[in-house]
Amino acid sequence: MFTLLVLHGSSRDETDLAEYSTRIAPQARVIAPRGAFREGDGFTFFKRRADRSIATAEVVALARQWLLNELDLLLPASEKLIIAGYSSGAVYAQALLSVMPDRFAGAILMRPEPLSADFAFPDLAGKPILIFAGKHDERRRPTDAPLLAAQLKAVGAEVTLHILDSGHGWAPHGEDIVLARTWLTGT
Length: 187
Hints:
The chain is of the alpha/beta class.
């Protein structure tokens, strides 16, 4: 058994990915925290700058603080832990992974963008990471997911990148679920 740490996107909450989590890993224990910052009708894990860019050092600092305050309370150190983040939750997942890479067995990053164009991850040798990007994603540049994949591969991660026939939302034929479920059985 493993635990899935599920991180919602901006203006959402901890219930947002409940059905997704159950469908990709019905046997897993799921932890779905709520982002600390109010945004729109929901919450987010970090605030963007006024121009919508990411304050990378601030996001990494928030991730470090969250791990120090929450991780041991939520999870025994012996449990296999996989992060699944959607949109800004995928950005926050990258920050968590960069702060404490040895604590995570892998990551599913859905509709992500890189923390920055030159972000330097620590050694992730052999760490499995699944990335889902939308071919028609109106919130991401076409280069975002391939750049992130290249950053992760450069530090040894085993990256699987899928460009789905979707926008920022879910792929219309359930590919986000089917591919994640298949990937999880191999990790």
